[in-house]
Amino acid sequence: MQVSDILIDAFSRIHEQVRAVLQGLDNEQLTFRADSDANSIAWLVWHLTRIQDDHVSEVAGHEQAWATEGWAERFALELDPLDTGYGHNRAEVAKVRAGADLLGGYHDAVYRQTERYLKTLSNDAFDRVVDRRWDPPVTLGVRLVSVVGDDLQHVGQAAFVRGLVLRGAGRA
After folding, report:
1. Bridge partners for 50 per DSSP
2. Largest Cα–Cα separation, the chain
3. In a domain, 172, yes or no
4. Is-contact 93 79, C-beta < 8 A?
5. pTM for the predicted model, two decimal places
6. Disulfide: which of 60, 92, 93, 158 matches 44 by Cβ 3.0-4.6 Å?
7. Which CATH number do you get for residue 160?
């Protein structure tokens, strides 16, 4: 088995979980927040997808789907077009409002782009240094595992919020 096969499997699991989290939820449910500082499902899915799009595009040397496939325009968020959600405050989190089809479509596009890139890599590619701002410098393998870890955390959080929504935690 190739390293790329393992990463494709990891990203496919994230993709499956994103689709499951979004399944059957309306816009109100997607934007439910447990309190004013909490993240919504819409924000969590948008953010994890933006991070994957941003980070994988950077190491792959291609443009983000967010810009090249018109997702920024479709979402029409009142945020900087390059924003990934990192460090968002409560007001910025509240700006991320999108339906399941839009969130899922963007995630599908980013997943396909990630999978295409991973299929081009041989095992020795993962030792390439992609970020010298850290000590030790970050390799491609470490960067991709970091994206997987971040995405898994956020999709798990979104699944938790989905559980709150479906159990009626948002009702008075």
Report:
1. none
2. 56
3. no
4. no
5. 0.95
6. 158
7. 1.20.120.450
